[in-house]
Amino acid sequence: MRYLLLCLALAAALASSAQQQIKLKRRDYRRDVELRTTEGRIVLRLSDSTPYHRDNFLRLVKSGYYDSLLFHRVIAGFMIQSGDPASRRAAPGQKLGEGGPSYTLPAELRATLFHRKGALAAAREGDGINPLRYSSGSQFYIVQGRPFSDAQLDSIEGARLQGRRIPPDRRAIYKTTGGTPQLDGNYTVFGEVVEGLDVLDRIAGTATSKDPRDRPVTDMRIIKARLVRRKL
Q1: Distance (Å) of CA 132 to CA 107, 128, 138, 210
Q2: How many Å apart are CA 125 and CA 127, to the nearest integer?
Q3: What domains are defined for the chain?
Q4: Of the four listed, 25, 122, 157, 184, which is most buried by Cβ atoms within 10 Å?
């Protein structure tokens, strides 16, 4: 058993190294990312203001890393999460959410990127063991969220944002389109959905297990992730 675990760890390390060696071409930075899922097509646009996360995501997509992975954690009115390689062949009820490459990414928190509906952000371990808020090397989530009232946003400013004010234009978005404002400044947002919000809603609305893992009862899967020509 010890030998098997060592082999698996070595294989994971070699895979991570290989993904990092993938070279990006100039045209890759002008492409969007298409996630072809069991529920339809989601197109993501990555932000140039988060280059570490952008380049890492592009390399993983080009390597086929996300192909066949599950959305292993889904919470209606909050977000859908993927990127755990253990989910590719996961048995029903298998615990997921701890897998990924052998590296993390430094936080790239940008005031212009926030958790509106459709935001693409990096998952990470909690502040207790990760005070610098380094991101997972592969796990990401897409925000579904919900609309908030002014009173609710006021409460979030005091309780979750340590007194940081939500700008008026952003507040208007949170009151109409919605999102998860309580996460702003705590997780790196590095892109957004440009097509497929209806697919996001379908995945977010699926029934999930009753335990804290929030795994969909019916597998929601990324069939294929690829770079596609950006629509002007």
Answers
A1: 7, 10, 17, 32
A2: 7
A3: 28-89+104-229 (2.40.100.10)
A4: 122
**Tokens 């997972």 sit at which residue?**
136
Q: What is the DSSP letter of 179?
A: B
* Under 8 Å between Cβ of 84 and 96: yes
pLDDT given for residue 110 in this prediction: 98
Q: How many CA atoms are closer than 13 Å to the CA of 74, on its beta-carbon side?
A: 21
How far apart are the C-alpha atoms of 175 and 66, rounded to whole Å?
A: 33
Question: How many Å separate Cα 202 from the centre of its chain?
Answer: 17
Cα 205 to Cα 203: distance, rounded to the nearest angstrom: 5
* Distances in whole angstroms, Cα of residue 67 to Cα of each of 113, 126, 166, 224: 27, 27, 37, 5
178 within 8 A of 145, measured Cβ to Cβ: yes
pTM equals: 0.91
Cα separation values, 52 from 135, 145, 161, 218, Å: 10, 25, 25, 33
Query: Residues in the chain, how many?
Result: 232
Q: Which tokens in the block code for residue 216?
A: 């969909």
b/e code 176-200 from CB counts within 10 Å (16+ = b) = eebbbbbbbbbbbbbbbbebbeebb
